[in-house]
Amino acid sequence: MRLDKFLKVSRLVKRRTLAKELCDAGRVSLGDRVAKGSSPVQIGDILSIRYGHKRITVEVLQLMDNPRKEQASSLYRVLSEERLEQVNTHFVDDEE
Question: What pLDDT score was predicted for residue 85?
Answer without folding.
Answer: 79
